[in-house]
Amino acid sequence: MYISLTNTPAPPTSEKPRRSGGRRPRAGIRTVSSTVITLGFVSLLTDISSESVSAILPLYITGVLGLSTIAFGVLDGLYQGVSAFVRIAGGYTSDRVGQPKWVAFAGYALAAVARVGLLFGTGFAALSAVITADRIGKGIRTAPRDALITAASDPERLATAFGVHRMLDNIGAALGPLIAFFILLAVPDGFSVVFVASLAFATLGVVLLGLIVPNVRTARREREASGARPRFAWSAVWNGPMRRVLAASGILGLLTIGDGFIYLVLQSRSDFAAQWFPLLYVGTNVAFLAFAIPLGRWADRIGRARVFVIGHLGLLAAYVVAALPMVDAAATVLCLVFLGGFYAATDGVLSALAAQLTTPETRGTGIAAAQTVIAVSRFAAAAGFGVLWFLVGREASLLIVAGALVVAIAAVTVLLAPLLRREKAGAP
Predict the structure, then answer these.
(1) Which range is least confidently modeled, 11-25, 39-53, 338-352?
(2) How many folded domains does the chain comprise?
(3) Residue 20 lies inside a defined structural domain of this protein
(4) How far is the CA of 65 from the CAs of 74, 122, 277, 383, in angstroms?
(5) What is the pLDDT of residue 72?
(6) Whole-model pTM?
(7) Which CATH number is 182's domain given?
(8) Which of 41, 228, 255, 403 is the most buried (most CB within 10 A)?
């Protein structure tokens, strides 16, 4: 992969991006800004921190603390969804004050401070407070960070830039569980050691962001070039194609249960998954980083909405494989590959799609709106699935969700039909 070490994004072109047929010029196909690379390393360090903890949380909560699957569902829902309450505020603030770097910095710093609470919280209430603080930090930082990526990138290769960032992000997400695994291998029941290591990596990420990443401000640059003061228009966030994207994200998010539940299903029936439980997160994230750039480039070529919908077929496949009787190791590996492909086709691609459909002055808010809908819906999905598991059992609950997801994918395809037709026609 060739990477350009420049903080200045490639100038936009007046040509419409090609969605199919023909070839783009080779120059710059694999080029991203150094700002994207540096943000990728910030995310790498932060994800080592967060994923080293999330890899052991299912066992820590249900095994060490002895809490029920309903309690785990609530905590996992908090982990997935509490950031929703501040995502739009974070994106809106970065748009209005023109300081996306420092808004993101505040979020990263809060999440790092929350790591300290893991060393002392041992009950449901304490863990809820720690997870809430950590996820609020994530909610504050994510949209401003993605706005920085957008401002520093060529608009025609935006999904590719997000793919590069998510690749680096997921290297950290793969290393985190590995670190947790080897710590627990060397120090049985050494959960507190994992928490200390998590705090150290989070602190390094905050320092790197504060000292190295430039504060790219697209709206101000465009205002200086045009001499006009850009206006913030909520209609760019809530109306038009964005309304359909937000609705589609919510529908699909309601059927996206937490990975921890899938891993617990695999563990409960598979000696292979039980033995290597912390490394299941590694497998998912290795698949994610392997697919991130190819699927990002594919989304730039055939359409971001199209790839976002297709990606949910990977999630559906993961549900089916986890629920049906298969050879233990094969089922586990297939689940991890399908989950990684799902995240690679939806995470950065959705941010690129939201950035594409909003204006520079509302970009942070638009990205945050999409992420908020995802977070809220996944919170509901995780909490609801914990109850469903309790009522009907693990395999039956997965098959119920898989059936509902089939219907949802068909409904979302109809909902996004105007946008999909535009992408097929090559419209920007």
Answers:
(1) 11-25
(2) 1
(3) no
(4) 15, 7, 17, 19
(5) 72
(6) 0.70
(7) 1.20.1250.20
(8) 255
